[in-house]
Amino acid sequence: MKFGKRLKQQMQGTLPGWRDKFLSYKHLKKIVKLIASAAPVLLNGSLEYGKAEAEFVYLLNNEIDKFNAFFVEQEEDFIIRNKVCFCS
Predict the structure, then answer these.
(1) How is 5-58 classified by DSSP, letter by letter?
(2) CB neighbours of residue 52 within 10 Å
(3) What does each C-alpha distance from 28 to 9, 13, 75, 78, 81 come to in angstroms?
(4) Helix 3-12 and helix 25-38: axis angle, to 10°?
(5) DSSP string covering 46-65
(6) Helix axes 47-82 and 25-38, enclosed angle (nearest 10)
(7) What is the domain partition of the chain in residue ranges?
(8) pLDDT band for position 43 (50/70/90)?
(9) pLDDT for position 78
């Protein structure tokens, strides 16, 4: 089974509030394909190649920030619910 299909199944089987927290795999994959297909035509230093690459990096950074915010929020909720003290 391909990763995209597995991810989609995982998303459908998870909590509804978590569905938007998953990686925007399809969008990232489209940009990677665009970059890969344009690479032979466009030189690495060209403006169009740079734009597609910058868009990918921007989206990927946003996805990383989204994951980070989600996990920090989950950790905070866990600590509050369980009144866990991580003191040294």
Answers:
(1) HHHHHHHHTS-GGGGGGS--HHHHHHHHHHHHHHTTTS-TTSHHHHHHHHHHHH
(2) 19
(3) 18, 22, 27, 31, 35
(4) 160
(5) SHHHHHHHHHHHHHHHHHHH
(6) 160
(7) 20-81
(8) low
(9) 87
